[in-house]
Structure formats: C-alpha cells, structure tokens
Amino acid sequence: MALEKATIIILRGSSEERVEVMFNPTEYSLDSANQYSWKTIPGLNQPIAQFVSGEATSLTMELFFDTYEKGKDVRTFTKKITGLLDVDKDLHAPPLVKFVWGSLSFKGIVEKVSQRFTMFLETGIPVRATLNVTFRSVAGITEQFKQIPRQSADRTKQRTIRQGDQLWQIAAEEYEDPGL
User: Fold this and answer.
1) What spatial distance separates the first Cα and last Cα of the chain, rounded to whole Å?
2) pLDDT value at residue 153
3) Alpha-carbon gap, residue 24 to 153, rounded angstroms
4) Distance between CA atoms of 120 and 98, rounded to whole angstroms?
C-alpha cells in the first residue's frame, strides 16, 4: 500500500489549490466544546446551566519540514502554510481550506500557526522547521441547519382530537415515529 500524503486544499470559489505537506503528522488532536450560561439562584448549592451553543471544532497538529539535504531555505515551504493566515484580496478574509489525510477530511480556516526553526546552514539560512498549526471548522447557517434536526422538546403542541383518532397515528404525524 502506498503512503498517502496529507494535503491541504485551498478553496477559492470554484477553484482549488493543493499543498502537500512535506512529512505526514505523527499525531493530531480534535477539540470540541459547548458554551453554557451559568445562572446563580439564591438558596441553591450550585448554578443552573443553560446550553447556549456549540463551539467550532479545532484540529491541531505539528507539521515537520526539512530541506537540509537540498540546501534550500525551509521558509519557501513553510510560507505555503503561514500564508493561509493572510487576507485574500477577493474574499477580504483568509481562504477556506480542507485538511485531508486518510479518512480525515476537515473543512475550515487556519486559525493559528507557530513556527520553530531548529537547524541552520552556516550562512544562517533555516533548513529545518516545525509548525504547530490550528485549524478551526467553519460552516454556514444553512449547512448547520441541515446537520442538526430541529425538533424542540420544549415546544408546546396542541391538537384537537376527534372520535376515531388513535394515539399511534398522532405520534406518527407529530414525531414521525408511531412508537412515541
């Protein structure tokens, strides 16, 4: 089986630009969270939590670059990644990207890049670098509404029943499940 290279796909409208990483990451982490509003009520031992919204998932990894054997400045390769923080003149924002590697396909923006240069030629030109890259997922309103089924348990429903109505039929019409 051939080694599959991790790729960052830069999404610019209908066009795509592919940037293969020099070396696949050794690990990555996905972080997700929810945001709650905490309300204190006098006389209770702890505050009451109310769900506000989900947080955008982030993908973090280290990418390794080494150009020592070629004798080239490693920054010519790392700037392809750090350049994803720059504002696109047509979008007025940094571009959307997709990180693809094996079964992982993560769409979002590059939120943060930290560069560490660890090897240099005698002339001071860096030839080895490690980039700590954080991607943050991005999804539009329409896309998010498609992902989350919206049936609110706190919505009051009222129905006038007629003779012959059966509970399973009402459940099937209201909840799309006659067992409910």
Assistant:
1) 49
2) 60
3) 45
4) 31
